[in-house]
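Appendix B. Raw example, untouched.
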Amino acid sequence: MQCVSLGLDFSFDMDSLTKLLESYGVVTKYSDVIHLAYSAKAADVFFFPYGVCVSWGLEKDGIDQLQSLVKKAEYEALGALSRDTIEYDYGKSPSIKDDYLILPDKEILTKLGCSQALAQSVKLAGFESIIQKTTRTTRDILKTLSTEGKISKSRKEIRHLMGKILLDRNSINLHLELLYTPKFFWSNSDLEPLYEMMTGYVDLQDRVDNLNHRLEVMHELFNMLAEELNYQHSASLEWIIIFLITFEVVITLSRDFFHWF
């Protein structure tokens, strides 16, 4: 059986999503997470408000159907598309190795405990994708800066790039709390070891630390571009001042010495 984690590039309007899902099976809310017992597909699907669906036992056609459906409950742009898949089965004790997960039972809360980590992992992958795209965009600037000692872009291009960096960085910063231990485990502490096993497997903490480091690099790049923009503006003002002084000198000489006026 397959467990598919699907990270969408938007968050959910949870009230709208609940209404959309009611015709597909039994809908239950667990704090801020919606569980759908998908009757037609004999599957369990969890929907997280930050735009992640984690399905257990759902085939590709069912996943595609749900992906089209949840677009109607789109709330705001958030992250980038991402997807992850693991095989799972049931056994005496929980374990995970080589993308194969053993669950200790078929309880909904057990699956939800695992889904919390899988949802965070796939959303983190979306954030990582955003930063990779920004890094590719700025790579040529850093290369030019290292070889020529200057940024060969216009003020308009620099402002455009600064806007993109600021938008991406703020979008991620505002939602970093999604990547820490969910409040769900405050009242379900018995499931926290299962969550920790999953977060350890997807290397969540190290990836979050790496993401924070990349955000710091983006911040430094933003400051560097801001300084370059200020320099270009100052240089333009200096040339304007030089032109005006030169013009005034020419006018003075023409009037007082050559009597052209």
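End of appendix B.
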